[in-house]
């Protein structure tokens, strides 16, 4: 148990560092680069994150399942090949789009929306490499997880953002004029390259044995068998994860289309900063909650008191944070990121209730797995994604981003309340069903 806690603490500390390092560099970047460049990079990062989810079609999670090392090695080969295929496919799609762009302009004319999307320019050229490297990192991370090499995983998780932040900070000063978006995107890819290289170097003894990939006919049959055996990962897990990740990408695309890259930069950074506490605090607490809730459930206990206690603890963090953001959001953003970012602070104060709700409810989303209510939880998740995007779209159409953020907070607060009430009811019903089943079993024995 002490070894498990040590590994968990190591990974948790690495995750916190991996999120803090980019946040510490952001004030420098916002004072050095224009908001338009940050907006282009923000959308690029959102697209790269979305495609990274499906880079290996979630087969990387099957790496821990085969009993034999040879079977796991074949799954690793499948994952690496899929990541490379995604990169080549995206590169081909971007080249085709570049070739067809004159016809697109001729068809659509010079609409404001088309001009805003054209402003992304060559930044999307980094996308194939970013997606391939993300797939490699995911596959090798799960490979090291299988071998219990958690120190290597933690080192890579810290090295990735550290390299990215260093390249971005230096490039923001010495980079070419007007090339800030390329500096930011290239820095992100450089960090991924270092993380993938470190994981690959530490797995070099295992990766060398992938030479059988050259035997294409044999490997093709083997991968087909593996793809069918673990088909639940691409068929069930991939759509769920992809749709969840699509929420932020669609939101940024809406802002870019309606208000331009500068507004997308303000909005993207604002959301990232506002939601950072939910990742730092909620992520750590969800790990603790999952273990304790699972133990309570195994022992036949009721999860309702655990839910109430968790909500109280999380509210103690969420409510003061939301109040500070609502009262001093513009001043905080102007002080941290520069005076031009004061408007982003105005939007942030309207998004504060949504941040508080996500911080409280987010860690509780692990409980439906214990209660075996994953299907209903999936329906809630998809509904929340749709409500978020629709509320932002309606707010943008009515009065701009301030209205959009207010609409998101209003709608999502109701969503979080509904999810919490359903979770409490599901826990009560599940506990009552277990008690009735236990009583029936005891009567049948007597």
TrEMBL record:
<comment type="similarity">
    <text>Belongs to the polysaccharide synthase family.</text>
</comment>
<keyword id="KW-0472">Membrane</keyword>
<keyword id="KW-1003">Cell membrane</keyword>
<feature type="transmembrane region" description="Helical">
    <location>
        <begin position="123"/>
        <end position="143"/>
    </location>
</feature>
<dbReference type="InterPro" id="IPR050833">
    <property type="entry name" value="Poly_Biosynth_Transport"/>
</dbReference>
<feature type="transmembrane region" description="Helical">
    <location>
        <begin position="12"/>
        <end position="29"/>
    </location>
</feature>
<dbReference type="Pfam" id="PF13440">
    <property type="entry name" value="Polysacc_synt_3"/>
</dbReference>
<dbReference type="GO" id="GO:0005886">
    <property type="term" value="C:plasma membrane"/>
</dbReference>
<feature type="transmembrane region" description="Helical">
    <location>
        <begin position="377"/>
        <end position="395"/>
    </location>
</feature>
<keyword id="KW-1133">Transmembrane helix</keyword>
<keyword id="KW-0812">Transmembrane</keyword>
<feature type="transmembrane region" description="Helical">
    <location>
        <begin position="350"/>
        <end position="370"/>
    </location>
</feature>
<feature type="transmembrane region" description="Helical">
    <location>
        <begin position="311"/>
        <end position="338"/>
    </location>
</feature>
<protein>
    <recommendedName>
        <fullName>Polysaccharide biosynthesis protein</fullName>
    </recommendedName>
</protein>
<feature type="transmembrane region" description="Helical">
    <location>
        <begin position="249"/>
        <end position="267"/>
    </location>
</feature>
<feature type="transmembrane region" description="Helical">
    <location>
        <begin position="41"/>
        <end position="63"/>
    </location>
</feature>
<feature type="transmembrane region" description="Helical">
    <location>
        <begin position="401"/>
        <end position="424"/>
    </location>
</feature>
<feature type="transmembrane region" description="Helical">
    <location>
        <begin position="75"/>
        <end position="103"/>
    </location>
</feature>
């Amino acid at each position: 148990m002490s070894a498990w806690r040590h590994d968990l603490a190591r990974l948790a500390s690495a995750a916190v560092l991996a999120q803090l390092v980019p946040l510490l560099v952001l004030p420098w970047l916002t004072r050095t680069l224009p908001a338009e460049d940050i907006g282009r990079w923000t959308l690029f990062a959102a697209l790269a994150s979305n495609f990274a989810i499906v880079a290996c079609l979630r087969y990387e999670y099957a790496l821990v399942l085969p009993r034999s090392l040879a079977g796991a090695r074949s799954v690793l080969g499948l994952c690496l090949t899929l990541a490379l295929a995604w990169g080549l496919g995206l590169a081909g799609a971007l080249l085709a789009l570049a070739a067809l762009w004159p016809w697109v302009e001729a068809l659509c004319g010079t609409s404001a929306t088309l001009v805003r999307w054209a402003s992304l320019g060559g930044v999307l050229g980094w996308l194939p490499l970013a997606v391939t490297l993300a797939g490699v990192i995911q596959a090798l991370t799960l490979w090291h997880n299988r071998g219990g090499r958690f120190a290597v995983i933690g080192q890579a998780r810290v090295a990735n953002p550290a390299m990215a932040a260093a390249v971005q900070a230096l490039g923001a000063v010495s980079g070419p004029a007007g090339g800030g978006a390329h500096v930011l995107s290239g820095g992100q890819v450089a960090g991924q390259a270092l993380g993938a290289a470190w994981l690959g170097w530490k797995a070099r003894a295992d990766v060398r044995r992938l030479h059988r990939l050259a035997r294409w006919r044999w490997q093709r049959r083997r991968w087909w068998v593996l793809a069918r055996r673990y088909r639940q990962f691409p068929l069930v897990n991939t759509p769920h994860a992809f749709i969840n990740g699509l929420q932020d990408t669609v939101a940024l695309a809406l802002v870019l289309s309606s208000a331009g890259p500068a507004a997308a930069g303000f909005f993207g950074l604002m959301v990232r900063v506002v939601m950072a506490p939910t990742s730092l605090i909620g992520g750590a607490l969800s790990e603790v909650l999952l273990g304790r809730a699972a133990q309570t459930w195994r022992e036949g206990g009721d999860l309702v008191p655990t839910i109430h206690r968790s909500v109280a603890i999380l509210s103690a963090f969420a409510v003061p944070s939301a109040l500070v953001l609502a009262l001093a959001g513009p001043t905080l953003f102007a002080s941290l990121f520069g005076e031009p970012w004061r408007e982003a602070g105005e939007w942030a104060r309207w998004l504060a209730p949504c941040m508080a709700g996500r911080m409280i409810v987010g860690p509780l989303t692990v409980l439906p797995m214990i209660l075996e209510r994953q299907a209903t939880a999936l329906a809630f998740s998809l509904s929340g994604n749709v409500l978020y995007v629709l509320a932002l779209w309606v707010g943008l159409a009515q009065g701009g981003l301030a209205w959009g953020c207010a609409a998101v907070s209003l709608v999502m607060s109701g969503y979080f309340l509904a999810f919490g009430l359903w979770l409490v009811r599901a826990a009560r019903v599940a506990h009552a069903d277990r008690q009735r089943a236990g009583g029936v079993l005891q009567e049948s024995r007597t």
